[in-house]
Amino acid sequence: MSELTGKIFDIQGFSVHDGPGIRLTIFMKGCPLRCPWCHSPESVAFHTELNWMEIKCEGIEKCGKCLNVCPHDAIKPGKMKKSLQDDTEIQLVTVDRSKCDNCGECAKACPPQALYLCGTDYTVDEIMKYIRRDVPFYQQSGGGVTFSGGECLHQYEFVREVLKRCKEEGIHTAIDTSGYVDWKNIEAILPYTDLFLYDLKNLNSKLHKMVIGVPNERILENARKIAAAGGKFQIRIPIIPKFNDSVKSFKDAGEFICELGDAVEVVQLLPYHNLGVVKYERLHREAPILVAEPPADELVQARKKLLEDMGLKVIIH
Description:
This protein is of the alpha/beta class. It has ten helices and 13 strands.
């Protein structure tokens, strides 16, 4: 029987925005949603995939080590660009995604790591070694471990085993989830989860499906079940221009959050930013991408007050 593993694309220590205190946040690969404002497009695919960071490429004149190692001839000379070191022109490489199978041979041969693989398999024991390194910081700050993604609960068997170990060792646990998973996945991790960082994007299911690709009934029902089971929430609302920034959208969200009662500890507003746009280029991925102006401070403060007037505790990230 093979050892249980989880596919992870990033591990961030000293995180202070993914639950209380100082935390270690573990980002799992794979997500069923297709949010056009996603700032982590490398999290969407469930498999390990090749990324290419143009700014790190030194050019084939100086390097070019990746050109001859691909077994599928997917790495080719690409466009010309001015060097960051001087005014000379250098020729970058390009990746033929129709030939690339994400084997990683080019990444191994790339000294500046312009080509790199996103998605590594870890065992439970390997992740616990990362987690234990920061125990003094958890203890001093009231922090702990957060699983995020992607949608971390699509790998719930792995997540459950790590959470179980954490609880045995007295480490606070949190799950950052869209809620769009089978209830059995949530039920499996409930006994070992202290806090759910739960995304609410829009209460209009038709619009939710049109923009994100899935309806929201499962998300709302799972939230109700978590609350009924005694789970605790930090509700997260991304403020997305022309999608959910209206007064009605926030009133609808506030009414639903109030239904969850004492299960909700705080509501966190996450104003849209466009910092993730460049990441799509690393994957050569053509996808609907939202590029808009971040919401004005006045609008964010107004939506915060709207929710506070409904009796909710609200913070802005």
